[in-house]
């Protein structure tokens, strides 16, 4: 339930009239000298020295009488990067995929006690739009997620982190419009329901996952308890229809929870009609103690990122690989989920190097055709999944001489043409797809 706004002040907001270009002419290709500007909110740097990206290992292939270089179909070019002046790690980034065609493409980054909103422009430009600072300097935001008001259509962004307070920011109102206190301790991931923009999922250090109705300010479902996670929950994701969620955490386990059960669906519907002003009783939050499936057979360390990939699941740990798997035997595509049966089928391993620290999250584009992950030395591995056999995909490795710290998260624009990455040295990297 939301606490009183009188107790916690709104985030302060700051608008900027600054637009930083990659180069003086904005082309991003011809000049090395730039005209840079700084504000009290954010300092933006430029990729004035770029490598010939992508810098990937490409093997030679013998033709008749000459060597031919193999070039992958999927290629990206580093067009810009910005550096925020707080100098602290940026843990989360999310592109607003709810914008309509012709509207500006915006994204949010979170790190330290800052939430910063940018606009992607042509020719590699990144424009600073707004910056918010939490009133508590001890706050450290870890995650963010975009949604919209289903009545006005105005964008909303949810942010959370170390203190466990989930804040809902309105870029139009220029303030924090709501906040929720329920976990009481760090929130590691936020995800909005794919079909209901008011349903927000939060994964926390308190071993639970909660489903909130941000429209009516109620906690609808609490996932966790008897057979829930035994340690910090690090990641969670809805499937494409929102009928199931998958979660993972420090207990090395992966769990699947159904949200289309009668009890949960009724609670979601009732959450829209609940009015705290008309009753003395709190909303009857559903306590879901038992997942529908659970396994610890995929990873042997912290599982810090999980995403649905169609009917399959992609998950990663600190073992230098992302694993694609499904519950049950491979021969049964519609295998019924059973908590008593932890049988899994591993379909493929996406291997990479130098990523054995935790809280490193990979990204999938909206159409699930591209998979990308950054490692702890600033390299970005990209796999093309738009193949007849995705298991034959070889990663391209993107590098830049100024990118050498851990890449914490990656996010794609809706059309997959731009990839954004955030790192520990307060930088945001823009990679545009080469057509």
Notes on the protein architecture:
This protein has 435 residues and is mainly beta. Helix content is 3%, strand content 42%. It contains one helix and 33 strands. Strand 10 and strand 11 form a beta hairpin. The N terminus is likely disordered.
From the N-terminal CA to the C-terminal CA, the straight-line distance is 48 Å
Count, helices: 1
Q: Compute the gyration radius: what is it?
A: 22 Å
* Shape type: globular
**Alpha-beta classification:** mainly beta
Percentage of residues in DSSP E strands: 35-45%
Provide the low-confidence segments as ranges. 1-68
The overall pLDDT average reads: 86
- Sheet with the most strands, sense and barrel status: 6 strands, antiparallel
Helix content: under 10%
- Tell how many strands the DSSP assignment holds: 33
At a glance:
With 435 residues, the protein is an all-beta fold. It has 1 helix and 33 strands.
Summary keywords:
disordered N terminus; mainly beta; 6-stranded antiparallel sheet; 435 residues
What layout of secondary structure does this protein have?
Layout: E1 12-15, E2 19-20, E3 60-62, E4 67-69, E5 76-83, E6 90-95, E7 105-111, E8 114-120, E9 126-133, E10 141-148, E11 155-161, E12 165-170, E13 175-181, E14 187-192, E15 199-204, E16 209-213, E17 218-223, E18 233-238, E19 244-249, E20 254-258, H1 262-273, E21 286-288, E22 293-295, E23 303-309, E24 312-317, E25 321-327, E26 344-351, E27 363-364, E28 370-374, E29 380-384, E30 396-398, E31 407-412, E32 418-423, E33 427-433
Parallel strand pairs: 17-21
Antiparallel strand pairs: 1-9, 2-9, 3-4, 5-33, 6-7, 7-8, 8-9, 10-11, 11-12, 12-13, 14-15, 15-16, 16-17, 18-19, 19-20, 20-22, 23-24, 24-25, 25-26, 27-28, 28-29, 29-30, 31-32, 32-33
